[in-house]
Design brief:
Chain A: It is found in: Cell membrane. The complex is a heterodimer of chains A (443) and B (307). With 443 residues, chain A is an alpha+beta fold. Chain A is built from eleven helices and eleven strands. Chain A folds into three domains: 217 residues, Multidrug efflux transporter AcrB transmembrane fold (Up-down Bundle), CATH 1.20.1640; 90 residues, Alpha-Beta Plaits; 117 residues, Gyrase A, domain 2 (2-Layer Sandwich). Classes of the chains: A alpha+beta (443), B alpha+beta (307).
Amino acid sequence: MNRFRVFAIFAIVVGFFLAYFVWSTETNPESQYRFKLGLDLAGGTELVYKADMSQTPSGEQNDALSALQSVIERRVNLFGVAEPLVQTEQASSLSGTTEDRLIVDLPGVTDIKAAVAALGQTPTLDFRLATSTTIGTTTAVTYAATGLTGRYLSSAALQFGSGATAGLAAPQVILNFNSDGAKLFEKITSENVGQTLAIFLDGQPISTPTIQEAIPGGQATITGRFTASEARDLVRNLNFGALPVPIVLESSSAIGPTLGAAAVTAGVTAGLIGFIIIALFMVAWYRLPGVIAIVALAEYVVFMFSVMKVIPITLTASGIAGLIISVGMAVDANVLIFERTKEELREGKSPREAVHIGFSRAWTAIRDGHLTMLISGGILFWLGTSIVQGFALVFVLGVLASFISAVSLSRVFLLAIVPDLPPEEGKEHRAWKFLLSSGFHKN
Amino acid sequence: MFIITHRGFFFWLTGLILVAAIGAIVFWGLPLGIDFTGGSLMQVKYSNEVPPLSTIEKQVSVVPLGAVFVRSSGGNAVSIRTRTMTPAEHEAVFASISSSVSTDSTSLPQTTELSYTSVGPALGNQFAHKALWALFAVILVIMLYIAFAFRKVSRPVPSWGYGLIVVAMLAIDLIVPAGFYAMLCHYTDMQVDSLFVVALLALLGYCVNDVIVIFDRIREHLAKNEKTGLKESFEETIGKSINETMIRSINTSLTVVFALVALIFLGAPATREFAIVMLVGVVAGTFSSICRSAPLLIPIANWFAKK
């Protein structure tokens, strides 16, 4: 048994294992490895928010963005959605300004208004230091961000303290910081005694207390001008999480579930029929190598599916496009090799030798083709917006897998089957030549 | 050698197709969808009879949105396109079209919203810019890579000449399906959306590969001729290379065509327009790489020979 046969059997066993994995995870509704379908296929709502980072120091923007993400995630979970997805995206425009976006995917939710309302109640909280500058007779107050924002908040509570008006208990909101926030708060208060530390809620200063002394312990009190019910709402919303930066709804989309379900069935049917037609054509034209190409292609497909399930990569319409083109590339690499093998056979090489040379001759074309595609895919992923990235990711993965499938799998399979015949012509020789040739005629 | 001998004819044919495609783009234009311009698009399905489009338009105009475009989108569904709506405006529009059409009819229209997309104007504009830049960046890098990959064959055509031809081919390969799409948009109500751009990008990858395979064969022959000292005209080398790779080019594009045809007839409506663009592009691209890219090397080689 030569080493190619060992590899070939191993590859087939792995292929069956992967196919079983794809099948079993897809038929089991409980499995965590089912295909993640994009909203354009499965139905649901997508909301794209722009994060306003103008008040955030540039060094802390990444932290603020991830804090924003976790707060919104908590909000979304509250909304009761099956598999919500909250992503952040830093889009840099060509003029050099970056834009931070928050993308919220809510599968199965088609009521945009309810979704927007639920997320929109999340308050923005931050602390800013006031500096008054007096020019002539007018005094202008500017506020500088301190970095202490809603992300350091661990909880909020309502309390009725003794207000300025005698006999009337004024509602107060107690803010409890987490340990990082407490340290930061202590640092800010100790360094700026005598100054005003304004508390901003949704971009408006709601309380402008003056720092009397350093405050350890991580507790701050807002004694704003609000009514009891306003204070109660604020506490509830703060407890669900306060945003470190303000967000603005930039775009939204909702796809009804009926449209999504039909899209999935149609996609699967189209993929299956397409594969069968390609398989018939390949076997009819390329004979034995055609059969091997189909086996290699089937392995390629189950491999791609498994990778997409494990990573996981969300399947969208543009991702399917990437998949189809990369399948085309995988077929092409095989076709290149087989055409080369046939040419070598015509020049009188023995079958096995022809296969060997066919692979090495096709190599430069396959290498250059795949490399340019990888480069294009990389650029698209780097520069593209999310829909282009969805395409690019699947495309790059597919090109890589196609490379492996054509260069190693098809080669191993062919070399495992084609025997090492003596150079003189014989009946067996002619039979192999026929099997390795191509076209609809006998030659 | 057929293609090489008659390359003049193929160049003219190319010119003709190109002029037609550019004409279609210039005269009919590529109507940009909300992905580029920003705006809102809602698709509504009526389970009973669809009221006349003008009636729906009137119902939508109850909400002050400026220009409203209502189109039938097949079956019992209509699509309504407006400027970017706020969630409240969106709700008002849906409520308005779900209300009774006329005073004498007692039954309310049964409406369900199939899909709703709203893109802020800033976001839309950004997408178009980024998509264009990505296209240019990809083409530029491909040109550089090919110039590098063919650096060992610099006679009779310098290696960057190959890169240049590939770029010219890619431009044609993208203009032809774009022109076809302009025609489709003119006769149907389709619009350029982000999937269209994805289709062009996919085509880019496909066509580059196609051209590279033929150029690779030319490269191989040139290297072999130099080694064996075989005197062969450049035209002969190219003709030989085209013939040897033709079946591969046709077979590969056939397999992709099979997949795309399946997607067009059996796939989801969301991917149909995309698949049509791809189909046109793949067929045009295959024609382009066989009949155009390699033959174009000859006039360039002659030009360099004269210098």
